[in-house]
Every structure is written in structure tokens, then in C-alpha cells.
Known about the structure:
Elements: E1 2-7, E2 17-22, E3 29-30, E4 35-40, E5 45-49, E6 54-59, E7 66-67, E8 72-78, H1 80-86, H2 97-104, E9 118-120, E10 125-129, E11 139-144, E12 151-152, E13 157-162, E14 166-171, E15 176-181, E16 188-189, E17 194-200, H3 207-213, H4 225-232, E18 245-246, H5 264-273, H6 291-303, H7 309-317, H8 351-366, E19 369-377, H9 379-391, H10 401-415, E20 421-424, E21 427-430, E22 436-438, E23 440-442, E24 445-447, E25 450-451, H11 459-474, E26 488-492, E27 511-515, E28 519-524, E29 529-542, H12 548-563
Parallel strand pairs: 22-26, 26-27
Antiparallel strand pairs: 1-8, 2-4, 2-7, 3-6, 4-5, 5-14, 6-8, 9-10, 10-17, 11-13, 11-16, 12-15, 13-14, 14-18, 15-17, 19-29, 20-21, 22-25, 23-24, 27-29, 28-29
Amino acid sequence: MALLDIQVPDIGDFDEVTVIELMVKPGDTVAADQSLITVESDKASMEIPSSHGGVVKAVWVKLGDKVKQGSRVVQLEVAGAAAASAAPAAPNASQTPDQAAKVADVPVLAAQSAIHNVATTSAGLIEVRVPDIGDFKDVAVIELLVKVGDSVKTEQSLMTVESDKAAMEIPSSAAGVVKELKVKLGDKVNVGDLIAVLEGAAAAVPVAAVATATTTVRPEPVEGPAAAAASTSSARTEVAVSAPAAVPAHNPIGMPIGLPHASPSVRKFARELGVPLAEVKGSGLKGRITESDVQGFTKSVMSGAVQTLAIAAQAKSKPSTASDGGGLGLLAWPKVDFSKFGVVERKDMSRIKKISGANLHRNWVLIPHVTNHDDCDITDLEAFRVQMNKENEKAGIKLTMLAFMIKASVAALKKFPEFNSSIDGDQLVLKQYYHIGFAADTPNGLMVPVIKDADKKGVVQISTEMGELAKKARDGKLSPAEMSGACFTISSLGGIGGRYFTPIINAPEVAIMGVCKSQIEPKWDGKAFVPKLMLPLSLSWDHRVIDGAAAARFNAYFGQVLTDFRRVLL
Ligand code: CAO
């Protein structure tokens, strides 16, 4: 084993560059050619790879450091033979950059000051070609920053290209209107390739003029497509432009969405995950997007806390149809000519059905639902309720079973607080208020009015409010405020029938109680079967927040409270 310092190689015309990303830490094992750090100048961002495989013993730089050719980056412990062949004497910062580059045998990564060929054809059109981009070959076009019809200014970036080590923008050296784009996303381009044809506002600058202004002009003949184009154009004026622009931290040309500020490896990572980098907020130096920003964004999208612009636009344009497989790669919705089989009538879906359908669909797809079924004995409660209603008939008071269930759910939410929560990104929001929604069947579709502060109200008041809210729902007069803010929902089909069902959680709530029709059933009391009024319960819960044992306990406690309300006093 031997120790070897990996140094910043020849980075072309860049004097000093800033370390903006550390990609390894002491103890990491790196492979030869694996990137160690990302550096950035005002012209390009690039990754500095390791010339050898080994174990990182020390990282000599920190974020924000300025480094230049020959600066030490990391110290590697490498296999003895490899070190010996690479480094007769251990390289260090005192070596000349040339020695360092040779010793480390690191490829030159710099986007060197470029010669960018812009030529005016006999028809007065301007051809913009890929400039000298240093040692890069076959770089991929990863972003097109203009389209046909756009007006571009001199120095405005036309596209971004990326190798596995660096990303750069390619600017136009002339102004004009884009007549043709000769590249598309994913194309591999090389120096001299035709990017775009402009109809010129400003003429290209004669080479002599630029030569006096810049010392980097190299009017070398361009081969391949560029040369071919040159031979067909009778009046071509060669010009030089500045080096490709850096992947910017800002939006220099006022594009609607600026090019995100991220290293090539992060951009690649984002592309692999299908993450739109322009929508990711960077937490790194100067707002740079890091790998963990991309991971965080992905988590937020998966949890439903965030929608990408594309998904939001898709949902907006197609709120509730599944005709394209819901964008999930599923089979398309079957298109059937039903009239072939018999007489049919077509009716538009109600507005409420469309809205609630889209919500239910989202909740069903995004929430991992599990439903626990249970029964509880409400014999005594029902007897009490009937008795109370008889006694208060004259006063016009009617206690409903649902009002008791709302009180029972408040007691259960207090005992199991995670059921009174919502997911917000990586956080759980635990509520200290108790607003309970109840599903109401209306001629126009399902609505969910909310009893606010149910913990502070008695069963009589809740019954009365429920009656009023259910009537408003049926009459289509519920206000948005009367349908918002619920912590937990009860969906009762008890007045209708059925045994059990799977209620869909009303996001961003994390659980919902479904109730079906109670029935007299024989229950063994240890000595004999006795008739008991049993209420079927179906609790759906979000498995991201709640686990099965907690759900079973919640269901059991909810039932025990209905069986004997004295439990809430304990
Ligand atoms: N078991 C047996 N009977 C029940 C019962 C239960 N769990 N719950 C209520 N009942 C009986 C009541 O005793 C009452 O009978 P009487 O008129 O003889 O007293 C009758 O059913 C109606 O009950 P109610 O007036 O108390 O109404 P409710 O509280 O059950 O329901 C409301 C009110 C608004 C929830 C209801 O009208 C409704 O819309 N339910 C449908 C909810 C729904 O669609 N859920 C599904 C959502 S998922 O698509």
C-alpha cells in the first residue's frame, strides 16, 4: 500500500476554480475515474476524477475553496504497484502542474476557450456550429434553450451539452431569429456540428476584429459537417466567440425556467429518476442542487406532498378520466360501443361527481390503504338512544347513532394521536383540534360536511348540526368552509345496509371509519348465547403513518367506547 495525492489536473484556461461539491469522504473506496469533487468557474462546472482506485485517507479541500491546476484534492491509499507506476516520487503540491497532471494521469476536463464557428451563407442566413469544446467528443444535447421562431441575442445560450464529467451551455455568437434547429435532445454532437440556422439581425463579426479582442482565437479549419457546409457557402465569414458558458446559478437570459444549477452527476441522477431539475430547490452552495435535494424532491412527489408541473398540468387537463391508463403505464380505459349490445342513454357526470371522483381516485392511488374490519356491541347504546329520543320527542330532539360515533372517534383520536395527523413531506403534522367529517349521500353525489370542534360539543348539539349540514349538502348549499378542515371522517351506510366495505381515506387525513348496518347476533356470554346488537366497523388507514397493531387497537377502542361510554371518563 502507498499514499498518493490526487491533484487538480490541467483545467485549460481556468486559473482558479471554486470547489462546489465534495463527492467523497475519508474512508470511501473510489474506483479509477470516479469523480472526487466538482469545481466551477464562471464558464463551466466540471468534475475532477481520480486517476487511481483506492481508499480516501484525507480530503484536502473543503466547499468554497479556490483550487487550481496542481492543487491537492484527496490523498488515496492505493495498491503499491499502482502507486509506483504512477508516481516515482510521491506527488505533492510543490510539483509543477505539468508533473502533477502527468503523475496523476488525469484527463483534461476543461472546457477550453472555444472557437465557435458562425458563418453567413450566401442567402444571408447565419449558421451556428458547436465550438471547440476541448477534449470532449460525442457530448449529449441535454437541453434545448431556444426553439424555431425565437429571437436570440449574441452570447445567448442555445443548448446545454453534457459529457459524463461536465455540463456546458453553447452560446450563439450572433444575434438573429432561429429559422432551423439542427439538433434535438439526446443527439451526440462534436466540434463543428451545425446547431442552428439564424435569420440574421446582427451580422457575424469578422474574424480579424475578434482576433484583436481575444487571445484565444484559433481559426483552425473545421472538419466534417462544418467543412462541408463551408464549401457550399460562397460568402462565409469566420468569427470567434467566447467559451461555452457555465451551467448557470441564475437565469442570465430570462428564459421562463432557468437552467438548474447542478453538477453533471446530479443532473444524470435526476434524469435517471425522471426528476425535472428546474423544479428542485437547491440547498447547496449558491443554491446548487445536490443529490439529496433530488432525493428529497422524489420523496415529496411519491408521498403526494408535491406534484411536478407536468403531473399537475396533466391532472388539470384530464381531472378524472382514466382513458390513458391514468398516466401510470396501465392499459387504456376500454372504449366500447355499448349501443352494439342494447339501447343506452348518455348523461354528463355531475360537477360534484367529477370533483369527488378525481379526489377519490388520487387518494386511492397515492395512499397505501389497509382496512381492518371489526364489530362492536351497541345494544345498550341503542337502547339508551331510543329511550332519549322518546323522552325528548316533544322537544324535537333526535339523537343519531352517527353523533355518538363522532364522540367515540374524538375519544379514539385523543388516545391514538397519530390517527389525528397528516403527512407533509418528511414530517407528520399532529393536530390538537378535533374536526370530524361525515360522508353524506346527496342527489348530486358524495359530500363530506365537517363538524368543527366535536370535542367541545355534546351529542345533542352534534346531532342537530349534522342534520343541518346534511340538509345543506342535499340542497347543494354547503360552503367550502363547511367541508374543510376535517381530521378524520366517518362514512356510515348504517341506515342503508351492508356488512363491511373499504372506505377511501379522505386525504390529507390518514384514516376513515366505515360503518354498516347493525344487526342482532347471538353472542356467547360464558354461559349462554345472548342477543346483542352488533355494529360492523371498517377502518381504512394509511400504512405510511399507521401500522396494523395500532389500527386494531384503534378499532377495538372505538367499539369499546360505543359499547360503554363510561370508558371516556377513565
Ligand atoms: N345500523 C342500523 N341502523 C342504522 C344505523 C346503523 N349503523 N345507522 C343509522 N341507522 C338507522 C337509524 O336508526 C334510522 O332509522 P329510523 O329512522 O328508524 O330511526 C335510519 O337508519 C336513518 O338514520 P339517521 O337519520 O340517523 O341517518 P344517519 O345518521 O344514519 O345518516 C347521513 C345521515 C347524512 C350520514 C346519511 O343520510 C347518509 O348520507 N349516509 C350515506 C353516507 C354514504 O354515502 N357513505 C358512503 C361513502 S363512500 O361512497
